[in-house]
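To fix ideas, we reproduce below one chain and its tokenised fold.
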Amino acid sequence: MCAAPLALAPASEASGGAPADAGEAIFRHGIQGSGQPLEATREAGVRLQGAAAACINCHRPSGLGAKAGRDIIPPITGRYLFHPRAKDMADLDLPYVDGIRADREPYTDETIARAIRAGINSEGKPLSYLMPQFALNDADMAALIAYLKRLDQRRPRGVTDTVLHFATIITPDADPVKRRGMLAVLEQYFTDKNAFPLGATPPLRTSRRMMFMVNRRWQLHVWELTGPAAGWEEQLKQHLAAEPVFAVVSGLGGKNWAPVHAFCEHEAVPCLFPNVETPVGGDSDFYSLYLSKGVLLEAELIAKNILDADSAKGVKSVRQIYRAGDSGEAGAQALAVALKHRGIAVSSRVLESGESIAKALKGGARTNTLVLWLRPADIAALETIPAPAASTTVFMSGLMGGLEQAPLPSSWRYSTRLAYPVDLPERRRYRVDYAFGWFSIRHIPVVAEQVQADTYLACGLLAETLSHMVDTFVGDYLVERIEDMLERRILTGYYPRLTLASGQRFASKGGYIVRFADAHGVRLVADSDWVVP
């Protein structure tokens, strides 16, 4: 049964390609077998068409439903629709999801068709006002019902009676120090999770009072990629075949994460909050969730600052400097696109391996705006280079430069602004104290603060979400529950607020433009409040 749309974001396919059949096209895209848009009518004659009428909008990709305010959208996959009447929830041999009913007549193909066309349930009573009535011919109706029957029939991958299997993925260009810090947190978190003796978990047939009682052991698999990026997706397929996992948690990438992102989308593997500076920059996929857009968000913050000040400062040209093959290349490209649309000339100077920043800055084209996408070693090397004239504004990547720990020479601090896509140190302190206390008690060396805090946050989000899922181990449902629960999270680490909705893959949406308050030290001053570009 399809319901009225809560969000109109596109849905991705588990296969990464076109719908397999007419039923899937109706459910996911609102397209009939003829290729015409699906049509439906809601209460008070409101008409829906095409993607706005697709079942996925309310019943979600999993088919397991959702909450719409105080209303609960029920599960509509085959095993929930056709289950026999039970006396109560304890007598119902199905994984628990919100909206499941034990004491109703099972649906048949005929009563499902009646529900979809006329809004009448299996017992002859009207369905919720949220449920539209759809104009479907017999062939399309049969295709849709067949799709609902098989929607949740796959055996959960990476799930046994005693173990939940997870992977973390590390690309060969990942920073080795960050790798060590991330793995220390992951391995300790998994050790803590498995600290008590566990036995086989019986099926759980109730809801809130049985929460937190799923006691499967967590098993971590570390998938380290090798060689050129062109071969990574095939390596990941081999890893998945040898070590099936329920989800990927955290992970670490260098410049290029796109093959990993593509693998997770193609194979329908949830990938939860990897540590990457250059995530895939779109909101159209489903299985990959990120804490932020990284350098792409920094580019948006810089662009907004420049464009907001354009008329006052007369910015006509911008010069960018980045090293070949580093994350700054993606940030520079994104910024160039944003500024060129507004008629601002953008030039780039690419530093090759071994080339000094001094050479790149010497004799460069005159510009009143300079953007540096550089690592700490290059930032520190600015010490030997005269600071730009007071009329020149300098922006730099906070993520790449080390945030407030960036070794920016005192002579450059007056003119330089940092793109800062996390909360200010004094504002985030109480949200990260728990994580760093946890590290201290367990003697985990803090070698990469943000990566380790973000990794701990990812583990906590996974654990919290699984506890609310009880024993409904469906990958799509895991992603959906994270979307639903994230905004209620209090301890959000480096970020003031995390939210996800259908069609959103980046949980933190904004940041600051900041400057150093003093010639030395790490105190920052923000140019404005939190900005969502």
Q: What stands out?
A: The chain has a mean pLDDT of 89. Residues 17 and 266 are 8 Å apart (CA to CA).
